[in-house]
Amino acid sequence: MSRTFVGWPAFPRAAEAATRNEQLRANVRRATGTIRGKRARLVAERPDWEALRDSAAAVKDEVLAHLDSYLLQVEERVTAAGGTVHWARDAEEANRIVTGLVRETGAREVVKVKSMLTEEIGLDNALEAAGISARETDLAAAIVQLGDDLPSHVVVPALHRNRAEIRDIFVREMGRHGRPAPEGLTDDPPQLAEAARLHLREKFLRAEVAVSGANFLVAETGTLVVVESEGNGRMCLTLADTLVSVVGIEKVVPTWRDLEVFLQLLARNATGERMAPYTTTFTGVTPGDGPQTFHLVLVDNGRTRALADEVGRQALRCIRCGACMNICPVYERTGGQAYGSVYPGPIGAILNPLLKGADDPQTASLPYASSLCGACNEVCPVRIRFTDVLLELRHQVAEGDAEVKHPAEKAALRAVGAVMEHRTAWNAAVRAAGLAGPLVPKKKLPGPLGGWTDSRSVPEIPKESFRAWWKRTDGGTK
């Protein structure tokens, strides 16, 4: 079975291990720095960049405000174009639908266009359990799969790997899954690309079923849009007899005119290119051209939960450009796998808790995986206010009953809350704290409180509280 993030440690423990890996830090820093520089140069070419961001945010908010209507319009248009629409409430239902559709064809292998949603729901493992091999065809996703690895970035899943590591993976693994790597393969990028091309071409030509995601879904025509850099996605979308597209319900845009806004933003923000090399659009079934059977699986899997959060729903605007990761100092030092999800970085720190709930033990620490510097706010093409959502999620964790909290911490917080509700008890507690100040250890607090001082110093506790000083000095006038 393929590796998954199921059972992954919470961010603090995963990040502690990641930051000790010097090669990982170097790989991530080099890659994000390069993309960041290219993005900045190309964004500076557009005097209307801020207006495009405003438009994109407005379009996404319009969709989220009327999502039910737009999804019904999508279903109507896709069906009219010869496709079949399926609805999946969660990962289990989505995997069951896709596995059943592939089984009906009799295929034992499918080719896949890179899709974060299928990684989110664990589709590859579900297909494998049903005796169906799912082979990734996006180059970076193929590197991750061949290396039995996990993705670390939404645009460049193998960003944490350098050329030498990729060469070793190709030599070691390609022969086990199809055409082997050429003799004498080096880590020269053109040679690596050619090895991948030869290995994957074999799979494209014999594939009967392809599975894709979509960057956008145009409601007015039921058209799906896939944006990529290599053309491997287009091979999947045109050569197979059956195409199954697995798409999150938030990917809708109302019209082609709205799509124009996002296509101007995405490539510049994601990879520092004026235009994506391949933008493929497809609508239903066309007799004699491309797949003759088309299924669209619309997946919720926590998205309506996120939609119900008044502050957090803006995370559903995300178009997966990855710019927030490329600018984030926390991501640069920890890499993407520390976040325990296919969605790492700032967007992962807010989207994962919104999809799963802030009290989930694996995601409860993610809102704290940020310095709140706000750099992600400035580069987001759809104006997600990451810091606002992070603070709201921190509030939800603090107020909730997250398993990440130590039992002693929960008891202490309940006790403090009870005392603060009574003025007399609180004033007495504040006076007692002032008197006890000299007895508090300066470097390490005792027992379960010790974790607090692992990265902090105990502040000086004043003998007199502010309230007492204010009363004694009549508001500072004495």
Automatic annotation (TrEMBL):
Transmembrane segments: none annotated. Residues 309-338 form the 4Fe-4S ferredoxin-type domain. Gene3D superfamilies: Alpha-helical ferredoxin, NagB/RpiA/CoA transferase-like. Keywords: 4Fe-4S, Electron transport, Iron, Iron-sulfur, Metal-binding, Repeat, Transport. It comes from the Bacteria. NCBIfam families: LutB/LldF family L-lactate oxidation iron-sulfur protein. This is LutB/LldF family L-lactate oxidation iron-sulfur protein. It comes from Streptacidiphilus monticola.
